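Q: Can I borrow your eye for a moment on a structure tokenisation matter? Would you mind producing a protein record, from residues through to fold? Write it directly below this note and I will take it from there.
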Amino acid sequence: AAGLFLGCGRGMLTQLHGLACDTIKSIRYVDAHGEVHDVDARTDPDMLWMAKGGGGEFPGIVTKFIVQAFPAPRLLHARDCTFPVQKAKALIRTWASHLPEMSDPAHQMFTHITMWNSNYVNFPNLCFDCS
């Protein structure tokens, strides 16, 4: 979990709730001298800012995260589409033209394109609690 939070953390619900680092409310960490510190927005906002994506140079080992939790989706629809690499340019162009609509949190969806050094392009799509 530490890598997810300290590395900002993009996931399937980012469109709805923001990055994982944005949900951090407080942390406990051990500094280089072995001292334990509890940090939140009131006690040390600069150190909390560093934990929430301050560039990956956090000066300690985080041993505890307190984060904002959100309800999990009740229903998940998934469609995993695969296209021949020859159709990648048209797929990406069409997909990109719909990004403003797909990025709207009201649509409750997650989509991306994965391209590897192969003959196929993978295009997974997820929809949360949609009808």
Observations:
- DSSP finds five helices and seven strands in the chain.
- Helices lie at 2-6, 14-17, 45-51, 88-97, 99-102.
